[in-house]
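quick one if you have a minute, typing this from the bus. theres a chain ive been looking at and ive put its sequence and its fold in C-alpha cell form underneath. please have a look and point out which stretches look like helix strand or loop to you. anything you notice is useful, everything is just below.

***
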Amino acid sequence: VTEVQTCALPICRPPLLIFFCGKMAAGKSTLARQLAERDGAIMLSQDALLDSLFPNLVVNVASYIEYAGRVNKVVAPIVVDMLTRGVSVVLDFPANTRNQRAWFRGIIEQAGVAHELHFLDTPDDICKAQLKARSAHLPPGTKWTTEEDFDLIASHFRAPAEDEAFVVIRHARA
C-alpha cells in the first residue's frame, strides 16, 4: 500500500522571511499579525521584546539603538535556525534605515531563503492620527506618543532603495 501524504498550505511552502518598513504608526504591527496568520508563520515583535527585557529603558534614540542592538544580536541566529528548518518568520522589527535593512540582509543570506519587505508608504498625517488614536488611553507625555516623538523618529526614516535589491511589496495609503 502506498501512502500519499497531502499537506495544506502554508506548511508545504518554502520558508519565507517577512519584514517591514514604514514610519511610526504606519500600521506595520497590524500587517505583521495579518501576514503571520495568513502564512502560519512565527511572529516576533521587537517592541514586545524591548518592553519585556528592558522595561522603561528605551527613552531616546540612543537607548533604542543600544537595546534594539542587543535584542537583534540574540534574535538573528534563532531566526536563521527557524528559517533553515523550514519555518517562515515574520519579524515585526523596523527596516526603516539602511543599517536596519543590512541586519535583515544578513539573516536572508545566512538562511538562504526568500523574503518580502513590506513597505507601508503612509503619509505623515495618517501616521500622526493613528499614533494619537493608539495613545489616547495613555497619560499625557508618555514617551513615543507625541507628534514631536514622531517627527524625531521619522527624521531617521529612509525608504528602501533599488540598489538594496530587496523584494519590496509597497502598500500605499492615501
